[in-house]
Hints:
Layout: E1 2-6, E2 11-14, E3 22-31, E4 34-41, E5 43-46, E6 54-59, E7 62-67, E8 74-76, E9 85-89, H1 91-100, E10 105-109, E11 112-116, E12 119-120, E13 125-129, E14 133-137, E15 146-147, E16 166-167, E17 171-174, E18 177-183, E19 186-188, E20 212-215, E21 218-223, E22 226-228, E23 235-238, E24 241-246, E25 249-251, E26 268-273, E27 276-278, E28 284-286, H2 291-297, E29 301-307, E30 310-321, E31 328-339, E32 341-348, E33 359-370, E34 374-379, H3 392-395, E35 411-422, E36 425-430, E37 437-449, E38 470-475, E39 477-488, E40 495-497
Parallel strand pairs: 8-10, 9-11, 10-13, 11-14, 12-17, 13-18, 14-19, 17-20, 18-21, 19-22, 20-23, 21-24, 22-25, 24-26, 25-27, 26-29, 27-30, 28-30, 29-31, 30-31, 30-32, 31-33, 32-34, 33-35, 34-36, 35-37, 36-38, 37-39, 38-40
Antiparallel strand pairs: 1-2, 2-5, 3-4, 3-6, 6-7, 15-16
Amino acid sequence: MRAVSVTSRTITLELNNNLPYYAKEEFDIYLNGTFYRKENRNVFTLFGLTPATSYEIEVNQKKLSIKTKSESVCLNVKDFYAIGDGIADDTVKIQAAISCCPKDGCVYIPEGTYLITCLFLKSDMTLYLDKNAKLLAVPDRRAYPILPEEKKDFFFGTWEGSMVANFASSITAISCHHLYILGEGEIDEQAYLGDWYINHREKNIAWRGFGMFLSQCNDVEVVGIYIHNSPAWNVHPFFSKHLKFLNMRIENPVDMPTTDGLDPDCCEDCHIAGCYFSVGDDCIAIKSGTYELAKKYKKASSRITIRNNYMASGHGGVVFGSESSGGIQDILVEQCIFKNTDRGFRIKTRRGRGRIGTIDHVTFNNIIMDGVKTPFVINMYYNMGSAGGHEEYVWSKKPQKITEFTPILGNFKFTNMQCSNVSYAAGVFLGLPEAPIKGIVLENIKFTYDTNCEAGYPVMIEHNFKLKNAGLYCLNVGKIYTKNVKYEGLVGEPIRFEEEEKPNE
């Protein structure tokens, strides 16, 4: 057992085992010799602790002594006349508490339902939501301020990898450091009550906001928060580093459009652990901007660890792109469960994303996938999102001239996995003829198929094709190495190398 995070009011611990997400059996937690609660997850958090206090934590006869961080002062939003009845708008009153909060202070939101538009946080503070505290977002977009586009190399608004004006998010932090967002409370965006999902790919006054937006921030921890029903992505860290997202619950209705869970974008040193995802799009989507942004800032997403998380539904479990022009490197995903996602690991890129940064050094280890239609997808012909995905330049299987717009994919390693109830294919790897995927390693993996499923589309491309119970489908892959890879219920050969475009079915 080790400490993953220690703040003024929380301690997050992780068991030292190799089991995905859940411990072998339920266990008891003792705090200073007194029973605290039962738990069954590998990553767990103790909430409501006292600042600057030493605690002894015992789990399975193993003890840790940890002292919480200190606080300068705690400001209760009720003292600023926040009402918390879910009817009166409490935005200004909570914002007043945030503005008055001194360095290393805490803004405390007690039990109640607080109607807000958006809160702007600042450096060196803690925002703590009590267990029965709910921030309830106003659904009308016209109530929100707009973050302007880039101004003299300072940037504020962003949408799908571009510096453009978008609505502020319910929790917004710009250029903040040493920021903590903690608690067992809830943020309900209520986006389904507004017009956020109508013509969702079109600009309406400004582009959609997020549930939580962290832009150009350093040393931020978000622990325990339940966030859901967001206008767009639930949590969007952007050009930020040294981040922790721990024991969060992130949800959206499964039929909502472009409502990703957590999207680190041009971020580095990011740790995601103990989180639960069930969303209408990708659970975790790592991004690094479109070509123009990458050309100017050359900022990759790198050194990201995703461990002990549960992806319950979504288009993809852990996804790269499609905005990935700055590069995505040094990614480790381990001890996770993927349950009923369309795809497990997914790369979506295409010609036009460019070669400013590469996607490389990616490792998945010790993963359970159940009901995932296609566990592994690498797609260099992705046809959705920003304009240009449907052009022949993108979908052509004929070699194109290598230019600065040609993406590069490096090496990927997948080890020690159980993939059960696979529908379409074990994996589909579509490289470009002029820029093949460099290398793929699969080792100690077992695929068991759902033989009663219908054939379906494993990837999103023009001139699509269906598969059912297929093995590894490869197009323009430099090297693929398999060791101890087993299939039960496979139809066809384990590895199929395709040289020409399949006809539409």
